[in-house]
TrEMBL record:
High-level lineage: Bacteria, Pseudomonadati, Bacteroidota, Cytophagia, Cytophagales
GO molecular function per UniProt: electron transfer activity; heme binding; metal ion binding
Keywords assigned: Heme, Iron, Metal-binding, Signal
Chain segments annotated as coiled-coil in the UniProt record: none
Keyword field contains S-adenosyl-L-methionine: no
Protein name: Diheme cytochrome c-553
Signal peptide: 1-21
PANTHER family assigned to the protein according to its UniProt record, in alphabetical order: BLL4482 PROTEIN, BLL4482 PROTEIN-RELATED
Domain Cytochrome c intervals: 48-189
Amino acid sequence: MKKWLFSLSIAIAGFSALSFTASHNDPAKPGSATGNHLVAPKPTADPALIKKGEYLVTIMGCADCHSPKKFTPQGPVPDMDRFLSGHNENEKLPPYDRNTVKDGQWAMFTGQMTAVAGIWGVSFAANLTPDETGIGNWTLEQFTKAFQQGKYRGLDNTRMLLPPMPWPQYANVKNEDVKAIFAYLKSLKPIKNTVPMPIPPGQ
């Protein structure tokens, strides 16, 4: 904290010198005082927790569905410029025979593997980046409810998540692991991408 000593001497009608001391804090600096309030530094997630989350997201294959792809001689690989941003909002679905999936005998992925047609209609992989069009406004409680209970956006009284999201297999994932996954996803680059809503069967 810096201090300045201001000394003012004013000789008016026998008044003596007046001096005072004032202190100053930069209100834009984290941890500084602004009036009667203290601006706290923005909390950051534990790097070890983020690293654990990265490991879990990798071995669980989340990018297989939630990342758009680039095509190489070895096949499709995640497009790291759009990593985990979900189905591209500007990508049109290729034509397909709805009779092929209506009886549940087949489910068909698009070439990007971010959209799937099945007996449930067409579902689209969600944006998992911390943009407001993804999980940017989500709480850990919401993420846990979506991950373990299959609730859309992690909210009560909403629809269930559609296949191929394997949330029933994630129901028993430890809360500490879910927390690590959430911390990692929140550390990613935010990518603005409003994923389409599911298409009901027959439409």
